[in-house]
Specification:
Number of strands: 15
Structural class: alpha/beta
Order of helices and strands: EEHEHEEEEEHHEEEHEEHEHEH
CATH class of the largest domain: Alpha Beta
Low-confidence stretches: none
CATH topology of the largest domain: Aminopeptidase
Number of domains: 2
CATH architecture of the largest domain: 3-Layer(aba) Sandwich
CATH superfamily of the largest domain: Zn peptidases
Amino acid sequence: MPQSLPTAILVLVKGKNPQRTIGYRADIDALPVNEKTNLPYASKNPNVMHACGHDIHMTVALGLLNYFSENQPQDNLLFFFQPAEESESGGRQAYEKGIFHDEFKPDEFYGLHDNPALPAGAIGCRMGTLFAGTTEVNIDITGKSGHAAFPQNANDTVVATASLIMQIQTIISRSIDPIQSGVVTLGKVKAGTIRNVIAGHARIEGTIRGLTQKMIVQIDQRLKDICEGIARSYNLDVELQLNQGGYWPVENNPELTKQFISYMKNNPQVNYVETAPAMTGEDFGFLLAKFPGVMFWLGVEDNSELHSATLTPNESSIMRGIEAIKGFLIYRMEK
C-alpha cells in the first residue's frame, strides 16, 4: 500500500475457476465528531466517530470476506478497505498510486452506503447516478482599497463581488437543462475590514454539485466565463480555483445495475427500494469512472441523519445486508 494510505487494505480471495475479478469496496474512515450515542461500544476517542456509518460498511464487508474465505467463490473476489473517503478522496489516491494491477485489478466493482432513512436491511438502488459529483469553489477578487469618501480612486471589490454572486445564480436557471439537477451554492463571502475603507480584496467559497461529470464540466466552464467577464467589466483580478478531486458522480453501470436490481427485486428475502439520486458526494464515483460497477444503499433505519453525533444504525441491517450481497455475488459469478 502507498505511504499516503497506510491503513488501506486489499484482500484477494482466489476463485475455483475464475473468469473475472469482482471488486468490493468498503470505506473505513471516521469523522471529526464527538459521539453522543451513549452506546457501550461508542468511540473512546474525542472528536472521532463513525458518524457516516462506515463501521457498518466495514462490518458487512468483513462478513462477506468471512463467508467467501470459508466457501471458495467461483470467481476471484477483491476486497478493498479504503481510507480517506470523507476528505482526501482515498479512492482516487489508491487508483493513481497503481494499487489495482495484475490480479488485483477488478473487472467490476461494487460498494454500499448505509441509509438511515430506509428500513433496516432494505436495499436501495437506481439506474444512472446515485450520488452527485462535487467541486469546491474558491474565488479571490483583488482590486484596490481606498478611502470610502473617494471611490473614484479605488477599485471596489464589494461591488464586483455582489455582481459576481448574482451572475453565478443564473448558471443553474439559464445554462443547465432544467430536467437535469445541478447546484451552485456560495456559502461564504468575506470582504473588507472596516466601514469607511473600500475593500481591496474579497473571497467567495462555495460548492458545485451535479449528477453527471458532463454537467459538472459545463457548470465549471460557465463559472470560468462569468469570472473572466467580471474581471474585465470591473477592471480587477478574479482568481477562480476549482477542486473536484476524486468526488465524481457515482454513475452506475447500466448493464450491471440492471442485473443487480433484477436480482434484488426477485429475491423474496430482500426488501428492495427504488431510490432517488442524492446530491451529496461519494468518492466511489471516481473508481466507477475507471471500472464498471454499482453502488447501492443499505437501510439502517435511524431517526438521526448521517454525520450526526447520535447516528445509531440498526444492527439487524448487518446480517440482512451480508445475505443480500452474498446472494448477488454468487448469482453474478454464475452469469
